[in-house]
Amino acid sequence: MQLKNIIIIAVILIFSNSVFAQKKIDNKPTSIIWYSFEEAMAKNSQFPKKKIFVDVYTDWCGWCKKMDASTFSDPEIISYMNENYYAVKLNAERKDSIVIEGKLFVNLNPTANRSTHQIAEMLLNNRMSYPSYAFLDEMGRSITVVPGFIEAASFEPILHYFGDNQYLKVAWETYQKQFVGKIGK
To answer: What is the total count of domains within the chain?
Structure first.
């Protein structure tokens, strides 16, 4: 009987630690909730209220790691991303297959170094540059791709531009000039 109670308590502690690792005491998340591409598409089909943001990276990309360590660690970026997007981490060189809406996507040469996956090629319009960020609308259709490392203060207006549907109403140059962000204030 005591062993059973110890196991139950251990499971509860492990679960609570993983839950609290996502949140600070003030209930603000401390990291972006990242999904696989498949998970985000499934969530989007069930609850199509959010856009999909895809961070296309590779394991060898130094700028991708810098993006994770700085921009994607900024509290404002984390908060806005979690609230407005299904955020996806997509390794452009992943080796496994992906089936989306009955269509199969593969890495045609999975044993080769730096061989790209078809889903990454499709998302980036065959312009393979890392890191790159694909923005998809609530229906999973491509809006645009933004390449390169971007500091948090410069990334904030980009997230809002697409997340708030401003891209449908105003040119980027106009929006960027009038945007007042929270980062660096």
So the answer is: 1
- Within-domain flag for 185: no
SS3 37: helix
pLDDT digits (tens, 9 = 90+) for 115-165: 999 999 999 999 999 999 999 999 889 999 999 999 999 999 999 999 999
Range of the domain at 102: 30-178
Question: What are the backbone angles phi and psi of residue 158, rounded to the nearest 5°?
Answer: -65, -45
Cα dist from 168 to 47, 137, 161, 171, 177, whole Å: 22, 11, 9, 8, 17
CATH assignment of the domain containing 95: 3.40.30.10
Question: Residues 166, 175: contact at Cβ < 8 Å?
Answer: yes
Closest CA to 118 of 108, 128, 127: 108
Longest dimension (CA), the chain: 68
Asked if residue 110 has a cis previous peptide bond (ω within 30° of 0), the answer is: no
